[in-house]
Amino acid sequence: MSEPAQPVTLAAEAGTGGILLWVALPYVCLAVFVLGHIWRYRYDKFGWTTRSSQLYERRLLRIGSPLFHFGILVVLLGHIGGLLIPKSWTEAIGVSEHMYHVGAVVLGTIAGVATLGGIAILIYRRRTVGAVFSATTRNDKAMYVSLTATIVLGLAATVAANIGGGYDYRETISPWFRSIFSLQPDPALMTGAPVLFQLHVLSALLLFAAWPFTRLVHMLTAPLGYLTRPYVVYRSRDTTLGTRTPPRGWERTG
Q1: Number of CB atoms found within 10 A of residue 67's CB
Q2: Distance CA 31, CA 28 (A)
Q3: Interval 19-63: pLDDT, tens
Q4: How far from 90 is each of 22, 51, 85, 100, 101, CA to CA, in Å?
Q5: I need a surface site. Which of 48, 105, 243, 252 has the fewest CB within 10 A?
Q6: Residues 167-221: tens digit of each pLDDT
């Protein structure tokens, strides 16, 4: 009986190449991600923004933006659950591998298609609407390329794995991911993963390294200051304001 075909990998074994790709690179990208955000917040607070282009065009934005953001939110939640929650934990609460696989494939495919469709609309909008295109920097273009590549590779890996009979990434990629954060990296786990999964992980690492220097920083921002900031004082030159008591924030100043 012949041996089953082994998946094509970027490195035949966890040698020097495997250590560079699956140990050194993740830690470098993680350090750049953390330190880059600290640097950006300290020295570029006024640049910490999405540079909204809503004033230039709204019709396509109303379609593409919600589609992309809701899709990417589901994708991120799925990745968090699949990478951080061990397989033994889901099985312990009665979720079989088949149940988990079906749920992950269905939700992941729907969310992936929604995310890809949303970003396609947003890119089309930036390219075809003159005012929006003029406000698009080289940094934005590089970010869109990196983000789109990561999404496409992830969706392609999911589709290819299921066409080929399925691939349980929770036995290789998930333990490797957790080993990085436990400071006990095991590159051998990644060298056995199919090439599309490896490329998806590498593209995600590079995206996270570039993250602090792009408009993606807005994802780590919450407008909590609006809850406690003081009212803005408005003054009027009108001398005939009437006798009605003005509402709070509109008191007369004399």
Answers
A1: 20
A2: 5
A3: 999 999 999 999 999 999 999 999 988 888 888 888 888 899 999
A4: 26, 41, 8, 8, 11
A5: 243
A6: 888 889 999 999 999 999 999 999 888 999 999 999 999 999 999 999 999 888 7
Buried b (16+ CB within 10 A) or exposed e, 103-129: ebeeebeebbebbbebbebbbebbeeb
First to last CA, the chain: 96
Tokens at 89, concatenated: 């934990």
DSSP 96: -
Q: Which of 73-77, 102-106, 169-173, 202-206 has the lowest mean pLDDT?
A: 102-106
> What gap in Å lies between CA 131 and CA 2, rounded to an integer?
61
Q: Label each residue of 99-158 as H, E or C.
A: HHHHHHHHHHHHHHHHHHHHHHHHHHHHHHCHHHHHCCCHHHHHHHHHHHHHHHHHHHHH
**Cα distance between residue 105 and residue 217, in whole Å:** 29
Q: Are 60 and 120 in contact (CB under 8 A)?
A: no
CB atoms within 10 A of CB 98: 9
Q: What are phi and psi of 113, to 5 degrees?
A: -65, -40
Give the whole-angstrom CA distance, residue 88 versus residue 15.
Answer: 29
Phi, psi of 39 (to 5 degrees): -60, -45
From 106, 48, 110, 40, select the one nearest 73 (Cα to Cα): 110
